[in-house]
Design a protein that fits this description.
CATH topology of the largest domain: Alpha-Beta Plaits
Strand content: 15-25%
Largest sheet: 4 strands, antiparallel
Number of strands: 7
Length: 156
Amino acid sequence: MKTILHFHLIIITSILLSVDSCKDNKNTTTSSATTTQTRTTTTNTTPTQEPLPVNPDPVTVTKDEDGVRFNASFISIGEGIDIELHNKFVQFIDSYPKKISYSPVSWGREGEIDYCLKLTELTPAEQEEFIKKLKDILTKSKLVHVNENEKCVHKH
C-alpha cells in the first residue's frame, strides 16, 4: 500500500513539474500600455520581434471573411420560429432603398435560421441606422438573438 502511495506521489509531482516548466518556456510578451502585442522568436542567432495585429475597429471587422456586421438568429423553443417576425425582417431588408445581400442559413429541425449580414453595401453611418431599425423590429421577440461584429455561427 505504501508503494502505491509513493508511486502516485511521484506521478503527481512529475506532472506538476512538467506543467510548471511549460509556463517558463513561453516567449510571448504583451505590452498593455501601448495596446501592441509582440511575438518573440528565438533562433540560433538572435531573438527577433514581430508585431501582432491589434484588434480591428468594430466597423472594419466586415473586411474579414468570417466576420459580419450584424447577425440575426431566429431560434425555436419547441414550437418553431416566430414566422410573423421573420417575415417582417425579410420584408424590411428587401424593401430597404439600397440592395442588401444576404443568404439565410437553416440550421435546426424546427425552422431555425440565421441571417449574417456583412452590410458592405452601406457606409458606416448607414450601417448604424440600418442596425438600429433592425433592432427595433427584432427586439419585440425573445426568439431572436442579435449580435454585432462577430463571426457567423452556422455556415453552409
